[in-house]
Design brief:
It catalyses: 2-C-methyl-D-erythritol 4-phosphate + NADP(+) = 1-deoxy-D-xylulose 5-phosphate + NADPH + H(+). With 399 residues, this protein is an alpha/beta fold. The chain is 46% helix and 15% strand. It has a 7-stranded parallel β-sheet with strand order 4-3-2-1-5-6-7, with helices on both faces. Strands 9-8-10-11 form a 4-stranded mixed β-sheet. Bound molecules: nicotinamide-adenine-dinucleotide and magnesium ion (MG).
Length: 399
């Protein structure tokens, strides 16, 4: 076989998506080679990954963790070079020898490296939805101008991408709407009035998916779905009125596309992130992912709930903010994302209650006016302004 090895930089390698990515890569040594791995500060985990995959580079965002990692790798006799700081993430994302970048850092912290990969025309496997929600049009322009190949890794967006025609210029004319499915998370049946008592441990226990803490809290508030609606808006270019959400607790259908003739095309599978990861890595080919296949004989049922039923609007008030932010001036989605990142952290730190996450988001949207940031610097300034306002509002609510 003479297929060239695809050289991959996995940014956020020690997280839930990073670990699943390396699991898929390890199944195909004839196709993929790990060029770089990165983590914020988990030395042990990154050291073990370096031992297994022997990358050319390892990046630690935290400087002292980087020194510790370098000493550890030297003691193993590894050639891997250790780099430190956020700028090293950008260097890896645009490195001329890198073919593909897995963007699996959590939060807006991943934006700069995503933009760098886009501008450098990489195959960009985008798990980091916050980067797209913040970057919006600016990010999509960088993808177009850099000639990057953007492959969504979020399971819903991978499902939509797989259900759409190959040629994006046909989407607007052929597609009626996109329907994102949502599990409803751990509190789908919970009395809205009791959400104030939810603890971080309860909020991160998702019924169907094992994920990082931030996205798990977002799934419990359904802010994750709000971010995904915004993500879909930018990825697929349809207006917000053509993006719908339906609750589907079993997470078997990962999302759907409804065409002009009412025909619906969906993608199904077991809830295992290795499926969209393998799809992104191998596209347009298909390779083994390690996931269990669906067993239709054992599938008891698939059910669906409208957002307007069962008190969902009251239980998940944050979801509607997606459409509001998309209809507001450009940059509003960045404000919403910053507020939510700060609010979720404050909740995980025990500073605010679960139901107050939404109140911080609302207060921040009210306090900060977005006005179409045109450059990365303007965007980062808006992000910082929104974080300050959200921090202020969380402190006021703090018990
Ligand atoms: P996680 O918390 O498990 O891992 C995050 C990774 O990013 C870790 O490697 C961590 O070291 C690194 N990191 C954290 N903060 C950083 C910073 N400030 N600078 C540099 N690196 C940093 O998160 P996850 O669940 O793997 O999610 C990663 C991204 O993928 C998120 O944007 C999430 O929304 C998205 N996503 C995750 C899933 C899932 O199943 N976990 C599904 C869809 C989308
Ligand atoms: Mg998702």
């Amino acid at each position: 076989m003479n297929r060239p090895l695809q050289r991959v930089a996995v940014l956020g390698a020690t997280g839930s998506i990073g670990v699943n990515t390396l699991d898929v890569i390890a199944r195909h040594p004839d196709r993929f080679e790990v060029f770089a791995l990165s983590a914020a500060r988990s030395v042990d985990k990154l050291a073990r990954q370096c031992e297994q995959f022997k990358p050319r580079y390892a990046v630690m965002t935290d400087e002292s963790a980087a020194r510790e990692l370098a000493a550890r790798l030297a003691s193993y006799g590894l050639q891997t070079r250790v780099l430190a700081g956020p700028s090293a993430l950008v260097d890896m994302a645009e490195h001329p020898e890198v073919d593909s970048v897995m963007a699996a850092i959590v939060g807006a912290a991943g934006l700069a490296s995503c933009l760098a990969a886009a501008r450098a025309g990489k195959r960009l496997l985008l798990a980091n939805k916050e980067a797209l929600v913040v970057g919006g049009e600016l990010f999509m322009r960088a993808v177009r101008e850099g000639g990057a190949r953007l492959l969504p890794i979020d399971s819903e967006h991978s499902a939509i991408f797989q259900s759409l025609p190959e040629d994006p210029s046909t989407w607007d004319a052929r597609v009626e709407k996109i329907i994102l499915t949502a599990s409803g998370g751990p509190f789908r049946r919970r009395d809205p009035a009791s959400l104030r008592e939810v603890t971080p441990e309860q909020a991160v226990a998702h019924p169907n998916w094992v994920m990082g803490r931030k996205i798990s809290v977002d799934s419990a508030t359904m802010m994750n779905k709000a971010l995904e609606v915004i993500e879909a808006r930018f990825l697929f270019g349809l207006g917000p009125e053509r993006l719908e959400v339906v609750i589907h607790p079993q997470s078997v259908i990962h999302s759907m596309v409804q065409y002009r003739d009412t025909s619906v095309v969906a993608q199904l599978g077991t809830p295992d992130m290795r499926v969209p990861i393998a799809y992104g890595l191998a596209w347009p080919e298909r390779v083994a992912s390690g996931a269990q296949a669906l067993d239709f004989r054992a599938l008891a049922d698939m059910s669906f709930e409208a957002l307007d039923a069962h008190g969902h609007r009251e239980r998940f008030p944050g979801l509607a903010l997606a459409w509001e932010a998309l209809r507001a001036p450009g940059g509003t989605t960045a404000v919403l994302n910053a507020a939510n990142e700060v609010a979720v952290q404050a909740f995980l730190d025990g500073a605010i209650r679960f139901d107050q996450i939404h109140h911080v988001n609302l207060a921040t949207l009210e306090a900060v006016t977005a006005s179409n940031p045109a450059t990365l610097d303007e965007l980062l300034a808006l992000d910082a302004q929104a974080r300050a306002a959200a921090g202020e509002s969380a402190r006021r609510m703090s018990h």
